[in-house]
Amino acid sequence: MRQKHWAAFEDFARVHGDSLVRLSFVLSGDRGKAEDAAQEALTGVYLRWGRLDDPLSYARRSVVNATKDQWRHLGRRDRLERTAAWQPQESPPLLDDVVADRDRLIQALRRLSYGQRAVIVLRYWLQLSEQETARALGNSAGTVKSQASRALARLREELQSDLLPVNPKE
Amino acid sequence: MNEPQLIEDLRVALDDATARLDAPPHAAERARARGRRRRATRGLLAGVPAVALAAGLVVAVAAHGGATATGATGATASKPPVETVAYVTEHVDAALANADKYIIRTTQRYLPGSADTQWSDPRTGSIYMVQGAGSSRQLSWESTFYSANVLHWRETDVNDARHTWSTYVMHASGTSAPSTGPSVPGGSPAQVQQWLKTGTFRIVGHGYVNGHHATELRADLGPIDMEIWVDSKTFQVVRTIKSFTGGLKGNSIIENDSWLPRPAALVNLINHPQIPAGFTRVPAPK
Q1: Which residue in A78, A128, B103, B153 has the most C-beta neighbors within 10 A?
Q2: Peptide bond into B112 cis (omega under 30)
């Protein structure tokens, strides 16, 4: 790789490396595996640098697929334990209520299927468009739209018993 | 819980939960080393001639042993540009001039234990705020408007614990002309603009905060020490930390700002108070 390309790739890794780790982490709940998935995605981008139209989209897709593979290889019991053990990294001790609400949301997210979770994370947390989300997941935009709708409905159901309802309008 | 609020709550939760997760150090160099080893391995598996094999081994050894030297070169390439406070201030001003293209979400934490989140619409100056959590949560909407050239404030509060809501309107004592153009409410970005103009700030470094590569500025403003982080590329304010000195030493207020797109549902939520069904209207507190 020429120096010019190396500098551009290094800049890419510096700017997007953290977000790739975070993406994998919210999908899997395992920091070590998240770092591995992000590193693997960056390696893939490095090997294809100069030939990719959209390196970030490629990297995201790599992370989603690598994390899915890791998730698939876990047994059901391991998945449940991983879900239960998933804890936020930063929990100020004085903010008990806030932390409890946040945990309920995250636990509800973790109980979604992998595909629904990935749609929610990409579409609403990373704020990708339906087309960008579809590219990252290898789906069609229509599938993303329907999955997002179903996932949000499922999340609302999960939370309904825990949180006070706030209806949109009287 | 309505959909925009659920999505915003999720964003806040995931932002907080991943705030301290970073890529491993030297991720680019590791990718290069792995990539080179993989290429070399592919060459071996393809049964290339001995010459190619030797070349592959040389590449692999160079990648393995030469990581430090190449890392140093890479560090030079990614060195942040030289910045001055004047340069940053100018660009922060420019970013604020474009604030009406965004919704600004500010999450505020302060001791002895509270966290509020507010969403500001710079186009209208309206604010939607969520204070506390669980059964003690309170929702507020604040907006300003002019009537007969007099500035009015309207605040609507919803109390989850009591299942009540109230609204009241205040007005300025004098008259003033309506403002023109977008305004940024009293959130941290507009305050930062004023603070930066005091000329007391200095750039102290760069780091990764609130999901952004950011430039850190600091100033001693008497009763408080101010720390401001602005995105190094967009110059949008992403974090402010006010640390009190003197009698309040040890207390601080941390505000994380996110510049969000303007989906219609979120704009509607911020600008139009939404009273939960079954809640009772009560007189506004005096």
Answers
A1: B103
A2: yes
* Chain A residue numbers touching B35 (CB-CB < 8 A): 43, 46-47
pLDDT tens column, A141-166:
999 999 999 999 998 888 875 544 44
Chain A hits for B115, CB-CB cut-off 8 Å, are 95, 98
Nearest to A15 among B20, B113, B213 (CB): B213
Residue from the list A6, A89, A106 with its beta carbon closest to the beta carbon of B21: A89
Domain boundary, last residue among A64, A86, A108:
A86
Q: Which of B35-39, B64-68, B95-99, B164-168 is the least confident region?
A: B64-68
Tell whether B286 is covered by a domain: no
Examine the domain organization and report whether A20 and A82 are in the same domain.
yes
> Can you give the pLDDT at residue B183?
38
* Residue with more model confidence, B259 or B222: B259
B77:A169 CB<8 A: no
Closest CA to A64 of A46, A80, A41, A87: A41
State the residue range of the domain holding B137. 85-281
Give percent above pLDDT 70 in chain A.
75
- Residue B19 sits at φ, ψ, to 5 deg, of -60, -30
- Among the partner-chain residues A19, A42, A166, the one whose CB lies closest to the CB of B5 is A166
* Residue B70 near residue B32, CB atoms below 8 Å: yes
DSSP 8-state class, residue B23: P
Are B60 and B45 in the same domain?
yes
Q: Is residue A143 part of a domain?
A: yes
